[in-house]
Amino acid sequence: MFVTHLECSLTGEHYPAGQPHDLSRAGKPLLVRYDLEQVRSAISRDALAQRPADMWKWRELLPFPEKAELIALGETQTPILALSRTAAMNGAAVLLVKDEGRLPTGSFKARGMAAAVTMAKHFGVERIAIPTNGNAGAAIAAYSARAGLRSLVICPAETPEINVRETAAYGADVWVADGQIDECGALVGKGAAQGLWFDCSTLKEPYRLEGKKTMGFELVEQLGWQVPDAIFYPTGGGTGLIGMWKAFDELEKVGLIGPERPRMYAIQASGCAPIVRAFERGDEFAERWEGAATVATGIRVPKAVGDFLILRAVRESGGAAIAVEEADIVAGVTDAARLDGMLLCPEGGAVLAGWRKALELGLVGKDERVLLFNCANGNKYPLPERSRKLTLASAEPSQL
Fold first, then answer.
1. Which residues contact 80 (CB under 8 A, 6 or more apart)?
2. CATH number for the domain that contains residue 294
């Protein structure tokens, strides 16, 4: 293990790595730091190419102690696919999507939860709790079951029913509450403070971020050790965006890539866009969004604990935060499915809509290599009924 310490993302204060932590004394996320000079001498492109194509191949840049039991469910490398007809429809040369719906429990939450539960198990945690709008709940429940831990999940009432039932199927204690995810998170935090469970909420412990950053490692290797011109990412809590930005920095410092960086675009729904509002105002932190509402439940996060880290990555990269309308989210899902056979989740539809809006605003070029993130399997979400009824006794092929 090459971990040296944990570091407050706001103040830089150091914390020891060999014990469980939540937020820093400043109330901000802790970041895992590594001896990158040692890592540089321990890995190479050739060595990585010989390893199984999964998230665990990046072990020198992951926080797990040598004796830790890895809590795994088959976290395979996810494919990057071309949306050729969707690109052509918008006059673009190329459009790529990284399909995270291929992971266990059908979403990119598997990466973060595999890492967080591995560390929780190592530290002797017995019960884990989170708030969730859907996919994180299923992931924490599955990995907790795998590790032999108990899990508690609190969902806002608008959480899709299939997500609630899936989470319960893994044996979690599931509660559906009359509030938003940050309000559910406040109850989780209160119980953690009373010693009833460990709070594994987004960025309130250090290791979900480390699992999520493997998306950045993967995409760079898949693109021939190059970064794309731009990345469009569905942004609620923003763990993946923050994690990828960290990943690119680490890859450069260990000699696997150069200083080039993609422009990072944080995509939110117009009905819940606190990061967009803060970006447009030039603020460092984002105020809570009141009355949050969107079909893309995964990005319905009124207040993100890592808001300043999201905004920092977007600004440092030369990217932007963009809000998209509900109709455009739905159109994104429909178009990708019908044109390219790719059933995006609503959050994936949002990033496609965000890319289209960025094209209109001149923020990206039609000849640039752009990578979208589809964060979950589209089959996990309610789909409109578009079939028609047929009476076989009277049916004629010419009528079909």
1. 96, 97, 98, 99, 219, 222, 223, 371
2. 3.40.50.1100
